[in-house]
Specification:
By secondary structure, the chain is mostly helical. It has one domain. It has nine helices and no strands. Helix 2 crosses helix 6 and helix 5 packs antiparallel against helix 8. The longest helix is centred in the middle third of the chain and has 32 residues. The protein starts with a helix and ends with a helix.
Length: 249
């Protein structure tokens, strides 16, 4: 089985964290309304794809009960990961009132948390791509949208603490590269067992992971700055983009 394209898609999704670092450096007047719209769009793509494509495909392959069991197992697993390593990090750090060493510790801990969370995300992109390249493209796109704010969250405190773009980019890169690393580890473990039935379970599991990320992380964050209508607009735009993608891909 050719793993080149699935691995490339996973790499693209993971290293979108580096794009987030670019946003920090080159878009000086980044308004919170932009973040609300962006996170809303990411949530819209993930929720729509989960319920309109991934879960129906899984139900078709393994039946309603088995697919839903895998769906909720996905929610449970990513929920446990989130419990062990809290993932509520998307904020804007400034130098005011904070010492640089505290910002450095903040950036480091954010990078560690994101790295751990990106392992299962990399597995979702890679395994879905193995089963259906079209789905792989769509999930990679949705995950990339989600990873750009993660890169911003890592780069901002590191940059303010060190005044080094190289270090900020480096930490963002390390957080993102966890996705293809997680994908490779999962492939080495699951390769002997790959089958259409297993991939159907993977689709349902991935849907659960993505829905949890949306409800636990993206949606609360995009509404917390008082930009409710902006966030809803982003959600609808994200759903519409995914609907168009499913129509033409």
């Amino acid at each position: 089985m050719d793993i080149g394209l699935p691995l490339l898609l996973t790499l693209f999704a993971g290293l979108s964290t580096v794009l987030g670092a670019f946003v920090v450096f080159f878009l000086k007047d980044f308004k919170k309304s932009y973040l609300s719209f962006f996170l809303g769009m990411s949530a819209g793509t993930m929720v729509y794809l989960s319920f309109m494509e991934l879960l129906p495909l899984a139900i078709k392959g393994i039946g309603f009960q088995q697919a839903n069991m895998a769906f909720f197992v996905g929610i449970l697993i990513i929920g446990l990961v989130d419990k062990v390593v809290p993932h509520h990090y998307i904020n804007y750090c400034t130098k005011k009132g904070k010492e640089c060493n505290k910002l450095m510790i903040t950036g480091f801990m954010v990078a560690v948390g994101i790295t751990i969370h990106n392992f299962p995300e990399g597995i979702t992109v890679f395994m879905s791509s193995l089963g259906d390249v079209r789905l792989g493209f769509l999930i990679a796109f949705a995950t990339a949208l989600h990873n750009i704010p993660e890169g911003m969250a890592v780069a901002t405190p590191i940059y303010f603490a060190t005044n080094s773009k190289r270090k900020a980019f480096g930490y963002s890169f390390l957080a993102g590269i966890a996705e293809p690393v997680g994908a490779i580890i999962a492939y080495l473990i699951l390769q002997p067992y790959l089958s259409p039935t297993l991939l159907a379970y993977v689709f349902a599991f991935v849907a659960g992971v993505m829905v949890y990320i949306c409800f636990d992380e993206l949606l609360p964050t995009c509404f917390e700055h008082g930009e409710g209508h902006t966030a809803i607009s982003g959600i609808i735009v994200g759903m519409f983009i995914m609907a168009l993608s499913l129509s033409f891909l």
